[in-house]
Amino acid sequence: MRVRVTEYLDLAIPERRWSCNRCGRDLGPAERPYKEGCLIANRDPREVHPVLAADEEFNFSFDPEWVRLVEFYCPGCGTMVENEYLPPGHPLTWDIDLDLDAFERTHREVPEDTTSPTVP
Amino acid sequence: MSLMDRIKLHEGLVYDRHPYGKAPGRDPELLTRGIEPPSELELEGMEQMSLLELEVFQHKMTSIVEEARDVYMALSISEGIITGDMNASVFTPEGDPAVVATGIYFHTLLNYGQVKYVMKYYRDDPTVGLQDGDVYFFNDPTCGGVHTFDMFVTAPIFYKGVLVGWAEVGGHQGECGSISPGGFSPRATTRWEEGLHIHGMRIADGWELRRDILDFMLNSVRNPFVFASDLKARVATCKRIRDRVLRECERRGAAGVAGGLRKILAVSGELSRQRISKINDGIYRCVLFNDGVGQESGLVRLPTTVIKQGDEMVVINQGVSPENDKGPQHCTWHLMRASMGVYLFTYFFRGLAPNIGLLEPIKVLVEGPSVANCGAEVAHGEGTTISAMNVQNLHVIGSKMLFDSEHRLSVSAPFSRNLMIYVYSGTNSYGYRTANFTGTQNLAGQGARFDLDGEHASGFYWASVTDAGEVEESDTRLPVVTLARTIDKDFHGFGMHRGGVPSVEISSAPKAGCQLTTRGASDRLSHNPGIFGGYAGPPNPRFVIRGADVFRQMQSGAQDLVLTQYNLARNRPLEGDYHFDYSSKATEDFAEGDLFIDSAGGGGGYGDVLERAPESVMDDLRDQIISADVARDVYRVVFDEELLTVDVAATDAERQAARQDRLSRGKPFDAFVEEWSQLRPSEDKLTYYGSWPEPNVDSYTKPFWGQFE
Description:
heterodimer; A: mainly beta; four-stranded antiparallel β-sheet; three-stranded antiparallel β-sheet; 1 helix; 8% helix; B: alpha+beta; five-stranded antiparallel β-sheet; 30% helix; 18% strand
């Protein structure tokens, strides 16, 4: 069974593997960060965020000496699964580290929810 | 095994309390002890009240504080209060916030410390005491407040001699006698530069303000007329709350009201646990960085780790940059905790009544001494910069927690926190001295949602349900002339769903001139992350044009003058000296014609830009919130630039090519880390950071941060 955990991540149980929600490509064991199964790029943020004030130190875009745009792609379909804005060389973020025993227990007990979200 | 066993806190630092101790007027233990156990009176009332009756009671109490909010906003003449940077609430007799109005939630998740101080130290002190009609004032950030410019009053509510609760009202007054007019003092380095500090002082007997106390306060600030007027508005509003609650006492008796308030907290705690228990257990993380400390630029780190297990959560800030002596961006333990309410109440606990009971299952561990849990002597005025970074982290984490739950509707990128605050001071049109910011702070962009774009010009970061007010009115109250408010271009986070755009305010000094102090963060980076591949909202530095010929051009009937941030920054259509600056600037004088370009920043995006519907990209172009460059180069849409029609087949091919580009430039994890780990910011950027990359660890080489077990 595959459970959709984020916009782009599925988690298969009992296999305990991450996969891409869009193409199904395996992204590695769920005991480890899914980012280890992605392709990763270190980009100059100005490639995405327009510089409004040309030749100015402060210009409404990011300063690439202070922060880099780190993009994580699904190696199967090239979907950008996640990104981070980090100072150059700063360690990455292990953002989702699930208790897989509890996860498996919970999701085996209830059928997969295919309905639209409900208003609380 | 407890997930907490995987967390190893650093030795020699504090996490569950402040790094400072007791002092006259200050008892930090009161700030960390949590909700008081029910008193006998409260227990009696709790037993009497059924859950159905509690619903009726809670609704009534909520209507009382919502009415108080309207009363306070209507009576005030402070810009911050009028536009909603305020709150009103009812506390339990023991001093815990039980019913909170819409507004700044964290205001009333804070002020329990001062009320409990009165209960513990003054109530039975013969030189002070506690009686009906007493009113206490407080604004000291180390005693339970925010910063000195957020000022509150509280009054006990006695019914037939029995204490049944407290009324509390306050908000962003602004001017407080600090070194910069209007409160925010971005160059302050100690608390002694931040003006009036009052821990909790009785200012009224029998609802009458004491003349000697009032004179002392008015003599301590630059705007005595505004200060006095707002203080009286606050006291009047407190009295309104008290009068309304007493009517409820007539119906329910003292025990009924006191017990009802306490039962609201107990039930809220249970509802909070129920909500938390439905979320996947695990460890979740997010990190943000700041690019300045006040007087100087420099990287500062604020990481957030959330451990969710069963029906409890632990929020940990570990690996925080140390205190510095160069500015006011220092937060207190209690402000870090209270600020979380801004996200939790609005999104995470959506649908549950906001009060401190919801925080009962949440343990807070903030590393100190650090910029997030600081000592008493440093400057605290922009502690909210640090606590907001935690709130943004929590928002990202919360969205990742809630996606696989029945509360997916709350999944979104964070609200904009890149607010650049311009504090204007001088003499206004009415002829009195004033100092404050304008309502444009309430026009920030919302983060994109899991199913929708973010709203434009949506609200204030700390109080999303706010209004910016009318510029004609703020122009009379403040020494500034507003020329334009505009939804601006290329100033939000892109994504499958895009972030909301702020309204940018363009204004000038009036004929008599004015002074301006600015505070901000995120000048070279952003505090508005996107989510699930959505891009962040952009940085928001200070932008001023001195000596602009705008009035001359307007007088000459210039028809093609477009007053937008995008046009002014890109094309420089006005003569004048253009200044794009670091946001934390000391007070300066400005003259008529000098232009100020100000906004609260744009929200982050949600999801991959290549999944945004091409027609929605064209809508963004028609709405002039993106440029053709962004449509073409970021969203990779092929379109007719004159007709704005999409070439569907060419767009599909272009986006497929973009995906191939990603697969070509992306590196496998090990290869990426090998190159990435060789990088490091230059030393001048790390002056205030602590050890690189983990501020409290001498050497750290793991590819993911925060792995200390």
